[in-house]
Design goal:
single chain; 153 residues; alpha+beta; Immunoglobulin-like; 5-stranded mixed β-sheet; 1 helix; globular; binds copper (II) ion
Amino acid sequence: MNGMTKRLIITMLVLGAAIALAAAACGGDDNNSASGDTTTTEQTTTEETTTEETTGGSASMELDGETGPGFTIEVSQNGADAESVAAGTYTLKVEDKSSSHNFHLIGPGVDEEVTTVPFTGDKEVTVTLKPGTYTYQCDPHAGSGMKGTFEVT
Ligand SMILES: [Cu+2]
């Protein structure tokens, strides 16, 4: 094993030296004859590689919804109550903490019951928000104030 490794290393060193020498020699040669000849600078024109992002370029945007356990429902962004959010595609993560409430988001282009009344636990949906007013509510208790709104600009 060791012997072989040693031999391999020596072989590689010798090879390396040989290549270096050859390269040096060749380099000299090439330069001399190339000056008139080898002007074929290969130009690989990479056209149409313009991948333009039309999605606004920002990283994944997230909104957090919470319904229950009491008669409360809310939507927050970065830990603060969402009042005005930028239009775009969001991951909406909803925590449903009660089997007597649901989470329903209604607004331009969106009518999504993210969690149902009996459901408890976490659910995640992707929503595309357009400028306008969005309402989130617990359907059975919206009339008693279990709802809120935020503006999308
Ligand atoms: Cu409710």
